[in-house]
Amino acid sequence: MTASVFLQSGDLLPEALNISFKLVPAIMVVGMLALFLAIGYVFKVADTEGMWVAGRSIGNVENGMAIGANWMSAASYLGLAGLVALAGFYGLAFIIGWTAGYFVLLIFLAAQMRRFGKYTAPDFVGDRFNSDTARAIGALTTILIGFVYSVGQARGMGLVGLYVFGTDYVTMVIIMMAITVGYLTISGMMGATKNMAVQYVILIVAFLTAVYVVGFTGGYSTVLPQIEYGRLIGELSAEFSEPFANAGFYLWIATAFSLIFGTCGLPHVLVRFYTVENEKTARQSTVWGLFFILLLYWSAPALATFGVDLYDASQYGPTFAANGGMSGGEGDLIVVLAAQLSNLPTWFVGLVAAGGIAAAIATTAGLFITASSAVSHDIYTNIINPDATQRQQVFVGRATIVALGIIVTITAFDPPALVGELVALAFSLAAIVLFPMFFLGLWWENTNRQGALAGMSVGLALWVAAVVNDLIFHFSDAFAEFVPAIGAALVGTPLVFVITIAVSMATDEPPERIKKMVRQCHSPEPMGQQQSAEDVVMSADGGQSPADD
């Protein structure tokens, strides 16, 4: 196998999943969606503080649950098990990468980012590097991440809706995305956060129940399926269990690296630190979030293994074995398929499916809010119209959510890869372009505007080249081998660090006021709930703000 591991999405085998209208699951899903809309309405907002950062009022456990739901996307709930089912050992790179990144966040970014105290990731980049150009590149990157990441969520919602309602895939993508866009345009970050806490409860109950019930009814496990599934590994094919059978060592490391540092650069993850009242709560909510994520990630390989064995033993296994094995469609729905092939009641399989929809909607909400804030706050207000009223800002943000929803919906009709792989592209971009700016911006006060612009520009160009080479033109096999789109950060992130540092050292140091803002991010002195590092520095310096470029 080459460096590109993008698998064909493939058609579903309708009989295998029993695609038809199911009354009880349909009632469950409709009721769940109605609940989301109601919560969004109850917590609707009209000001920018509520729209972008939920008034900085979210507590540690609630924010931890929101982090978990924000993170437990269709890529985690559906795609992670699907990647393990289709690629075996290679799928573990996703589990390691998507988990380890939170330790880096906890140690190096969570509290410091909260003390910086802005609204968005591009806001940090623009203010820290004193540059509207850097802000614009950060906003463009945020929008790209939101788009690529959300296409995977829309595919997941469409596939699960297909199982529940028995209609066609395109119709389900349209309906699910319309509902998601509807409640987001009303609620903003405040309603989205309240919904995420509810969505996390739904998705984790559905997933863990599926792991235990499928494991017990299939005779795979009794008490702890997360460990007991190991005895099955030797009975499955070498392509599933043998290390590096589906992808070489370099690609495995490159993928894990991209996912670890991509986690630290994702705008919809970092904005969660802006929604809490102080840096202590930011740290605590990160720990809670990691625990909530652990519950699903520890269980995903077990359910994938059960699903593969059930599928191989079913009447559909030989059909697809003759064609090279399970298709991407089956892989992306292995969580639901495992429950279906265990001959569990339809309502139970519907519960599992509902969890997948909740996971996809929760993450889409976070992505759309951060993308809309990048357009409204960072581009429209900070660059185009500095005198914009709060009403105008909220209107532009809501219009962005609608526009992005339409584009994502159309793209999801025929996505280029599996759910998990699409999401991994967004991680690769975040790791290359944004993570170096966050890390250096918070930990090296001499990082300057010129260094940031050089590093971000090179990183963005490298990522685009890798994606085009892997998915569109295939202009160089050697480039694909060493800079695969899904793991481009292994080369790209160190390169961006080197360029940013070298250019910063070769040019003038940033203004002293910018350095003071960086120091304030590490100060032990407490700050007010609504204060930013810039506010503290401005107050100490007589109210002057840093000059814009």
UniProtKB/TrEMBL annotation:
This is Sodium/solute symporter. One of its GO terms (molecular function) is transmembrane transporter activity. Its main location: membrane. It is found in: Membrane. Belongs to the sodium:solute symporter (SSF) (TC 2.A.21) family. CDD domains: SLC5sbd_u4. GO terms for cellular component: plasma membrane. It holds the Pfam family SSF. Residues 520-549 are annotated as: Disordered. Keywords: Membrane, Transmembrane, Transmembrane helix, Transport. NCBIfam families: Na_symport_lg. PANTHER family: NA(+):SOLUTE SYMPORTER (SSF FAMILY), SODIUM/PROLINE SYMPORTER-RELATED. The chain crosses the membrane at residues 23-43, 64-86, 92-111, 132-151, 163-186, 198-220, 249-275, 287-308, 347-375, 395-413, 425-444, 451-473, 485-507. It comes from Haloferax gibbonsii (strain ATCC 33959 / DSM 4427 / JCM 8863 / NBRC 102184 / NCIMB 2188 / Ma 2.38). It is a multi-pass membrane protein.
